[in-house]
């Protein structure tokens, strides 16, 4: 997949609107050839603006955009070797499916026979064969999305840009489309730059993710790295479930909670620093008393305050007094022990489950 | 490999700082060029004429009434204070305001009636029926009333038969009828457009809240249809104020309105500077009103 | 939920409204119908029906002056519509799609002004201006005058339509290699066409209807149909005018149905 070539390179890209609004702040980013790359972040973090800058629909206030080594500069979007799938699909309402898909090819004056061939191929790729003559206004959301995809891919762009393309679809359809998109990307082989605010979507689909917040690029890495080694509180809380407890580092690798308990955790700051301890609920286990819990791991005692049944898992809120509340997620399998509100339990976890974040 | 955010405080050199500005300038020129033909045309055939009218109002009156661009004076403007002028202006304002008011009352009831017909096909049909007279030639429509109000016209016959009225032609009421007739569709169409857009659930909530259909109408429906009321009123008031054809065909010497009065200055009365002063006065008021409207930020068109 | 789904006032009020509605329709149509009917009456006098006759129509078609003025009217209407529609559409694009350029604010204001001043004032302005610059008055001066007020009306209608159109499809077209011109021709224009046609229709009607401005800026030789008819009405009322009127109304009706047919295709 990756053969070392860089598909998109952003250097020092900044976008300011007016005096005060900084949409994108000094972004340095390299997207590899053939990779499925996601820009992830909450609304307003600058991910869509970044995408538009790559497409040429916005120009950066500062910085350079290169696509396969070629500096884009003032190049307008119709001269760039990239295509975009818009959030609202932006299909041409006065054209049918076929003419929508063929649009880019016709703009490039490709001869009609080839236009036919490639259009049919693209429509087949998104599994809409037979719908060619249908008006674009008579399509369902999912169908519109596929037309938008075909319309972009038929031009064989060097990079495909997608702006939250699945946002308007219902859950089941969205999940199905996620897999389809992934398959198409492997089949076509070009880099996809995918903007989303849905961290689950980013985790399942991407080769690498760039997490953004308020215009800044916070962390870039593979899904497992982002999830397991979040670089700060924001990434940790945005990606995956996590709960937080205040505390202080007593020595490297040890954090003292408000209630006095000391736990082993991953720390990067000096002793004495006030930290927020972030813990992933699914990495915790519950036991009746200390003897049952495996030795050499963290064990904090508490009382079950609330219990929520999710079907595939059960969520326990365990109140450990002054230290705070532990959220524990236990898979709902036959072998799992069930607890009731009021039970005294031991919360057990390995140091890898907890990360201390300095403010 | 995980790339951590760099705690790098060293000053970074701005790459390509001119890009955005260049792109914005390019867009700016594009926009300007789209407007240029219309812009130039309007400056030549609207803005400059505005100045000419203003300048001519200070010129002196030649033998044929045409302006002589010497001996600048304020004669044209001082005549604006003439009691005759005040009468005519007063009458015109009265006519325009009353006409707008009547069009509003009748037009609103009419538009509301159409908007509340349950079937879309009915509403469309009714609208088409309103459009036909609307698109019909204004002159023809006014002329039709001339026929009806003349000595042997049907309306006159009806009036004589019932004993209620005589020949109405060349009186102020005739002008009113003509103006109402001419401008009613101008009021109905924007009103309909605004009323049609109202969300009924708001009105329904109002009915529950106020326990009275009338109150709900006054407090909810009416305010929500404001844009239509404003648009329609402007479309009726301004032409009514400057009406010329209607008062000329249906009115007489005693019912001279502003429009006729101005036209006479360029015809029989042979006083172009005075006609220019009158026109300038109207323009100043209208231009001032537009600027105020734009400044207030309200923009419904 | 829209107003017509149940916003009917109570029974009594609704009946009153219906009564008012039909009354208004009668008010609007009866005068025109009477003109049309009497255009076919043989009597020289409008009060009495004189048997079916087409003599007024014959008179009308034989009237050379009238026919010439009709010809002028059509020529002026055609060209003023075409030119003002092109200029007005470009102006609307300039204002709606480009937010920052030199003189935009002033242009916005200038564009609105012809709409809000009475036509008498416009007539005076143009006459004085043409006199000042020594422009010979004739068919051409009328055309120039009509374009002057039509641009604004077209721009308003097209602008309303543009505002309703999501510009993202234009971005999509650019993303798909279309130049500005091709984006306009293949995407924007088809989508705003109802507005452009509506604006054009409005311009056509205003041009065909115009009396005051035309009468001020016309020259000795050329006049338009409405101005000619206006002159006739002021002098004497002959039934020939009924025939002319009927034809004008019929032309308007054809225009209305044509515009509806175009809108149906949306």
CATH fold naming of the largest domain in chain A: Rossmann fold
Which class best fits the helix and strand makeup of chain C?
A: mainly alpha
Q: What is Rg of chain A?
A: 25 Å
Count up the domains of chain C.
Answer: 2
**Total domain modules of chain A:** 2
Low-confidence stretches of chain A: none
Helix content of chain C: over 70%
CA-based gyration radius of chain C: 23 Å
- Mean pLDDT across every amino acid position of chain A: 91
**Continuous helix count of chain C:** 11
What share of residues of chain A is helical? 10-25%
Beta strands of chain A, count: 20
The assembly state of the depicted protein chains is heterotrimer
Question: What is the level-2 CATH architecture name of the largest domain in chain C?
Answer: Orthogonal Bundle
Cross-sheet strand order for the largest sheet of chain A? 6-7-8-3-9-10
Write the layout of secondary structure elements.
The complex is a heterotrimer of chains A (359), B (301) and C (266).
Chain A lengths: L5 E12 L3 E12 L3 E5 L6 H9 L6 E6 L2 E2 L10 E4 L11 H11 L4 H14 L15 H13 L5 E5 L7 H18 L2 E6 L2 H7 L2 E6 L2 E6 L1 H6 L4 H6 L4 E9 L2 E4 L4 E3 L9 E6 L5 E3 L10 E12 L3 E7 L5 E7 L12 E6 L4 E5 L1
Parallel strand pairs in A: 3-8, 3-9, 6-7, 7-8
Antiparallel strand pairs in A: 1-2, 1-4, 4-5, 9-10, 11-12, 11-14, 12-13, 14-20, 15-19, 16-17, 16-19, 17-18
Chain B lengths: L18 H38 L3 E2 L5 E2 L6 H4 L4 H33 L4 H16 L2 H12 L4 H9 L9 H25 L3 H11 L2 H12 L1 H16 L3 H6 L7 H8 L6 H24 L6
Antiparallel strand pairs in B: 1-2
Helix pairs in contact in B: 1-13, 3-7, 3-10, 4-7, 5-7, 7-10, 8-9, 12-13
Chain C lengths: L10 H29 L15 H8 L1 H34 L6 H13 L2 H15 L5 H25 L4 H8 L4 H30 L2 H6 L7 H11 L4 H25 L2
Explain what this protein looks like in three dimensions:
The complex is a heterotrimer of chains A (359), B (301) and C (266). Chain A has helices at residues 47-55, 97-107, 112-125, 141-153, 171-188, 199-205, 223-228, 233-238; strands at 6-17, 21-32, 36-40, 62-67, 70-71, 82-85, 159-163, 191-196, 208-213, 216-221, 243-251, 254-257, 262-264, 274-279, 285-287, 298-309, 313-319, 325-331, 344-349, 354-358. The radius of gyration of chain A is 25 Å and the shape is elongated. The relative contact order of chain A is 0.12. Chain A has 2 domains: 6-237, Rossmann fold, CATH 3.40.50; 241-352, RNA polymerase II/Efflux pump adaptor protein, barrel-sandwich hybrid domain (OB fold (Dihydrolipoamide Acetyltransferase, E2P), Beta Barrel), CATH 2.40.50. Chain A is α+β, with helices and mostly antiparallel strands and 359 residues long. Chain B is 71% helix and 1% strand. In chain B, strand 1 and strand 2 (67-68) form a beta hairpin. The radius of gyration of chain B is 28 Å and the shape is flat. By secondary structure, chain C is mainly alpha-helical. The mean pLDDT of chain C is 87. The longest helix of chain C has 34 residues, at 64-97. In chain C, helix 1 (11-39) packs across helix 11 (240-264), helix 3 (64-97) packs parallel to helix 6 (139-163) and helix 3 packs antiparallel against helix 8 (180-209). Chains in contact: A-B, A-C, B-C. At the B-C interface, helix 1, helix 3, helix 4, helix 5 and helix 7 of B face helix 1, helix 3, helix 4, helix 5 and helix 6 of C.
């Amino acid at each position: 997949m990756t053969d070392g070539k860089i598909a998109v390179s952003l250097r020092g890209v900044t976008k300011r609107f007016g005096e005060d609004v900084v949409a994108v702040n000094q972004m340095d980013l390299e997207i590899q050839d053939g990779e499925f790359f996601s820009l992830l972040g909450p609304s307003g973090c600058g991910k869509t603006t970044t995408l538009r800058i790559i497409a040429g629909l916005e120009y950066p206030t500062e910085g350079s955009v290169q696509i396969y080594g070629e500096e884009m500069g003032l190049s307008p979007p119709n001269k760039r070797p990239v295509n975009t799938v818009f959030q609202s699909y932006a299909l041409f309402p006065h054209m049918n499916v076929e003419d929508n898909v063929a649009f880019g090819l016709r703009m490039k004056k490709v001869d009609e026979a080839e236009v036919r061939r490639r259009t049919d191929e693209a429509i087949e790729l998104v599994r809409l064969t037979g719908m060619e003559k249908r008006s674009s206004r008579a399509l369902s959301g999912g169908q519109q999305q596929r037309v938008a995809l075909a319309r972009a891919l038929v031009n064989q762009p060097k990079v495909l840009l997608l702006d939250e393309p699945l946002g308007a679809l219902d859950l089941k359809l969205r999940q199905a489309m996620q897999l389809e998109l992934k398959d198409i990307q492997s089949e076509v082989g070009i880099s996809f730059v995918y903007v989303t605010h849905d961290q689950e979507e980013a985790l399942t689909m991407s080769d690498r993710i760039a997490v953004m917040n308020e215009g800044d690029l916070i962390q870039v890495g593979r899904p497992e790295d982002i999830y397991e080694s979040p670089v700060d509180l924001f990434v940790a809380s945005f990606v995956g479930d996590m709960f937080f407890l205040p505390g202080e580092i007593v020595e490297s690798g040890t954090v003292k909670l408000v209630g006095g308990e000391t736990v082993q955790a991953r720390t990067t700051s000096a002793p004495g620093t006030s930290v927020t301890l972030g813990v992933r609920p699914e990495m915790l286990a519950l036991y009746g008393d200390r003897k049952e819990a495996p030795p050499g791991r963290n064990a904090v005692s508490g009382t079950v305050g609330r219990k929520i049944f999710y079907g595939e898992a059960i969520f326990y809120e365990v109140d450990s007094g002054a230290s705070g509340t532990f959220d524990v997620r236990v898979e709902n399998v036959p072998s799992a022990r069930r607890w009731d509100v009021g039970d005294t339990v031991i919360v057990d976890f390995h140091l890898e489950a907890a990360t201390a974040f300095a403010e | 490999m995980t790339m951590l955010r760099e705690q790098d405080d060293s000053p970074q050199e701005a790459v390509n700082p001119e890009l955005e500005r260049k792109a914005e300038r390019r867009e700016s020129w594009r926009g300007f060029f789209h407007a240029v033909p219309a812009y130039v045309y309007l400056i030549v055939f609207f803005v400059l004429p505005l100045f000419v009218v203003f300048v001519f109002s200070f010129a002196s009156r030649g033998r044929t009434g045409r302006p002589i661009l010497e001996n600048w004076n304020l004669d044209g403007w001082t005549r604006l204070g003439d009691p005759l002028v005040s009468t005519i202006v007063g009458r015109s304002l009265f006519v325009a305001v009353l006409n707008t008011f009547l069009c509003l009352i009748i037009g609103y009831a009419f538009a509301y009636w159409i908007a509340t017909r349950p079937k879309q096909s009915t509403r469309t049909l009714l609208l088409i029926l309103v459009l036909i007279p609307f698109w019909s030639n204004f002159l023809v429509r006014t002329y039709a009333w001339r026929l009806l109000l003349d000595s042997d016209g049907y309306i006159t016959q009806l009036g004589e038969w019932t004993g209620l009225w005589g020949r109405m032609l060349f009186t102020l009421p005739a002008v009113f009828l003509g103006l109402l007739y001419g401008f009613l569709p101008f009021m109905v169409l924007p009103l309909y457009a605004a009323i049609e857009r109202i969300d009924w659930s708001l009105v329904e909530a109002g009915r529950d809240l106020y326990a009275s259909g009338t109150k709900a109408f006054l407090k909810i429906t009416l305010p929500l249809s404001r844009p239509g009321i404003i648009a329609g009123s402007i479309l009726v008031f301004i032409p009514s104020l400057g009406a010329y054809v209607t008062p000329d065909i249906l009115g007489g010497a005693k019912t001279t309105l502003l429009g006729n009065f101005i036209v006479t200055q360029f015809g029989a009365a042979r006083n172009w500077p005075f006609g220019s002063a009158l026109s300038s006065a109207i323009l100043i008021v209208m231009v001032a009103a537009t600027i105020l409207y734009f400044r207030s930020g309200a923009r419904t068109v | 939920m829209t107003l017509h789904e149940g916003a009917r006032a109570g029974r009594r009020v609704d009946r009153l409204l219906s009564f008012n509605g039909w009354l208004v329709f009668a008010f609007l149509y009866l005068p025109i119908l009477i003109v049309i009917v009497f255009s076919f009456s043989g009597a020289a006098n409008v009060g009495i029906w004189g048997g079916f006759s087409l003599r007024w129509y014959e008179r009308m078609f034989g009237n050379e002056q009238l026919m010439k003025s009709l010809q002028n009217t059509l020529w002026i209407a055609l060209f003023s519509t075409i030119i003002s529609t092109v200029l007005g559409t470009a102006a609307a694009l300039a204002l709606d799609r480009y937010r920052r350029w030199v003189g935009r604010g002033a242009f916005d204001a200038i564009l609105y002004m012809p709409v809000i001043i009475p036509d008498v004032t416009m007539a005076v302005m143009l006459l004085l201006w043409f006199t000042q610059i020594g422009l010979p008055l004739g068919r051409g001066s009328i055309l120039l005058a009509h374009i002057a007020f039509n641009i604004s009306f077209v721009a308003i209608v097209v602008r309303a339509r543009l505002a309703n159109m999501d510009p993202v499809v234009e971005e999509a077209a650019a993303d798909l290699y279309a130049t500005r011109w091709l984006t306009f021709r293949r995407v924007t224009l088809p989508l705003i066409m109802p507005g452009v046609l509506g604006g054009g229709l409005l311009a056509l009607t205003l041009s065909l209807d115009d009396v005051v401005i035309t009468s001020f800026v016309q020259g000795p030789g050329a006049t338009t149909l409405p101005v000619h008819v206006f002159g006739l009405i002021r002098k004497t009322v002959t039934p020939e005018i009924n025939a002319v009127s009927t034809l004008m109304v019929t032309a308007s009706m054809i225009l209305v149905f044509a515009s509806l047919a175009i809108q149906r295709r949306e």
